[in-house]
Structures are given as structure tokens and as C-alpha cells.
Amino acid sequence: MEFKVVDKFWSLINEKLELWIELGIKHLPNIVVAIFIAILFGILSRLGGRVIKNLLRKSFESQQIADLLTAILKVLIIAIGVFIALEFVGLTGTVTSLLAGAGIIGLAIGFAFQDMTENLIAGVAMGIRKPFELGDVIEADHVFGNVRAINLRNTLVETFYGQIEVVPNKILFRNILTNYSTTGRRKIEVPVGISYADDIEKAVEVIVEALNQKDYVIRSDETAVYAKEFGDSSINLLVWFWIKYPGDVGFMQARHDAVVAVNNALKEADILIPFPIRTLDFGAKGGEKLNTMIGSGQNKESQSSNRSEQSEQADQGEESASD
User: Cα dist. 89→37, 80, 97, 121 in Å?
Assistant: First the structure.
């Protein structure tokens, strides 16, 4: 009885093995073609990866972004080869299951590493758009300085105080970003005040002439001075001029030299830059002016002193008459 059961199981196993061998022999050409396709796509991914890496490193400032995109493209090429090979073997269901599984895994990774993924995508997007390059002066979200490195997840910015700010790429991608190096020029504004007794047009002419003599001033036809407002002690002016930026002369140095030049030019032209002055005037709306009030006060004091002198003289006269 036991031998019959063993023979039955062995016959079933033998039939199954014969079926597999028959199917294997039948699909042997497809298997060979599938292996050849997989090997071919593997070679293509390596050769294509080198070419793509060289092109991307020339296109992107960050080598990390270029290497990441190259790795993604290589994986895609290999995945396409594997899916085509599985189709040749006839494992269509396996291909569908792999695609579904890859989608679920990608979704789970996206939720688990949402912040990291967002910075990564923002870094790749900025690498393609190139809103700034290495060495550019940028300002975004209270960060102001020179770009020192562009990585996959963050960008390193060296501030003008010497600190390194590590800025997540999503902040630079989401917020308003100002690039001071794109146009190659920058306008400097210098406020200055002149006294009410001086001529505004003469001050404008003197300041413009003084600034246009500086080598760092470009687009001299656009150097301008505008009257801004009536200040407490002066007429306030705004001085505008352009410099090359970044250039041999930095922003702070150019502004410092411009302030010195404006000050010297106004002094030579005998135009006063006044300090705060307070004038008391009580004559507005029917009141008395300060000099009138002081004069009337002095008159009253003199009158009172005269009266006191007269009274003293009268007293002295009375005393002498009595004697």
C-alpha cells in the first residue's frame, strides 16, 4: 500500500517535471532572446550613462544633481530592458505585478520622506531652470550672500558676515528669490540733505558731475538726483547711480566712496549739509513771534526797573525835605 502511494506521488512529480522541461524547451528561444535583451540593455545603460553624465555635468553646476539624474536614467533603461525580456518569456502578469509594486513602493517612500523628496525635486528643478549659479549673490527668505555650493537637498550660501547658511532647496524654489548677479549691474541709492537756503538745481548739477568722474560709475547718463521731501532741517535728496556688479569695486566700497565724493563736492560748491536745527516760532495763527515776546519782556523789565528807580528817588527826596 505504501509503495503504491509513493509511486502515485512520483508519477505526479514526474509528469510535472516533464511538463516544465517541455515548456522550457518550447520557450528556450524566447529565454535566450530575453537574456540577450537584458544584457544588451545593461550595456546600453552603462555606455549611455557615461555619455549622459558628461552632458549633464556640463549643463548643471552641481555634479550631485548630474549624477542623480544619470543614475535614474540608467535604472530606467535597465527596467525597460527587464520588462521587455519578461514580455518575451510570456510573464505578462509578472510585469504588471512589478509595475504595481513599484508604484506602491514609490508612493510609500514619497509619504515617508516627504520633506526630503520635496527638497530633492526642488534641487533637480532648480538645476534645470538655473535661477542662480555658483558665485552669484542671491537673497531669499532673510538669507543674503554668495552661492558656494548647490547640492541635491540644499544650497550653501556664504553671507557677507562670513557665516555659511545651509538653505533647503524647497525654500529657494518656493519663495521670491533675488539674484543680484544676473544683469551684471546694480543701482546704488545715497540719501543726502541740503539746507533750505541753497539751490536744489545747483546741488543736483554738482553731485552728478562729481559722481560721473568716478571710474566705477557706469551708464553715466542715468546718474540722477531727485528731491525726495521737505525734511525738518533740510531738503532731502536721493542720489542714484549704477555700478558693475559683481565688479572690481564692491557695493559697500562704491557707496562709501560716493558719500565722500558728494560731501566734498557740496563743500567745494559752498552748499550746506545741515545738522538738525530747531526754530521756535509762536507767530503762527495769530500768535506772537519769539523775538516780539522777548522784546516785550525786556521792555516790561526796563519799565519796572525805571519805576523802581523813580520810586527810590522820590523816597530820597521826601527824606531830604523832612530833614
Answer: 11, 14, 15, 36
Q: What is the CATH number of domain 131-179?
A: 2.30.30.60
Cell numbers that stand for 55 in this block? 552632458
Q: How far apart are CA 186 and CA 236, in angstroms?
A: 23
Nearest Cα to 225, choosing from 248, 199, 247? Answer: 199
For domain 185-268, the CATH class is alpha beta
2-112: which CATH number, 2.60.120.10, 1.10.287.1260, 1.10.940.10, 3.40.109.30? 1.10.287.1260
Which residue(s) pair with 242 in the sheet? Answer: 187, 218
**Three-point CA angle 20, 24, 28, nearest 5°:** 180
The amino acid that residue 18 corresponds to is E
Per-residue pLDDT tens digits of the chain, which is 323 residues long? 555 555 666 666 766 666 666 666 666 676 777 778 778 888 888 888 788 777 777 776 666 677 777 877 887 888 788 777 777 766 666 666 766 676 777 666 666 566 777 887 888 778 777 888 888 899 988 889 999 988 878 889 999 888 999 999 888 888 888 898 888 899 999 999 999 989 999 999 999 999 999 999 999 899 999 999 998 889 999 999 999 988 888 888 999 999 999 999 999 999 998 887 666 666 555 555 556 666 665 655 665 665 665 565 555 555 555 55
